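Quick note —
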Amino acid sequence: MRTQHKFTQYIRNPQSAPAPDDIEERRMNMYRDLLFANLSNMLGDNFPVLKKILCEESWIELIRDFFSRHHSNSPYFSEMSQEFIAFCQSERCDSPESKNDFPFLVELAHYEWTELVTAIAEDDDISQVAIADPLNQTLTLASTAMPLGYTYPVHKISPDFLPTEEPEQPTFLVVYRDTKDQVGFLETNPTSHQLLLLFTENTGNKAIKTINLLKDIAKQMNHPNPDTVIQGGLEIIKDFIKRGILVHRVN
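Predicted structure written out below.
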């Protein structure tokens, strides 16, 4: 057991943990380098923009920090991307090196992760029915769509666009998978983002028809002409339906 513990500690953090005495050094180094390379390559594939905007040294330092300090809740290598997000959100700030991180690093990583999650999300369209009259049907958010809100315009981040200060306005997006199983994103505004959040909760026995949902919104806005809100909302909703973001699901 002691050998196994020393083996694990050395593999995770060879700079501070000694290698086991009873395992050949060449073999230990091979295990160490291979495991780290596999992790780095996998996360690089899942977070391509993040890797692209970091220099090689910064990328390796970030992955090494994750590998050495984060204790995963899942034993599956395939779930390391989710573990990496958890690390970035709650543990990375404890590292002295985090002072050099881009201010949008956590949000960018989360955005790239949502693209991955959406790509592999189970599609429950077997319980969906056609939407012929959206105003008089109960709609909800598809299982392959996710409304998002960020401080930074993460969908625009690239080596040529690396903002250093918070924008005046937040960014709202919806990541979705269309009927051809292609993942896309749509930039939304605060109103349509709030609308999507309402549809997210529009499920089960609490679900109400779209017309009633839009009337409630108009009432909350104290709008002098509710029909304007309803018609404007309907056009947005039709686009969401076309993209597969909203569905009518049989309970």
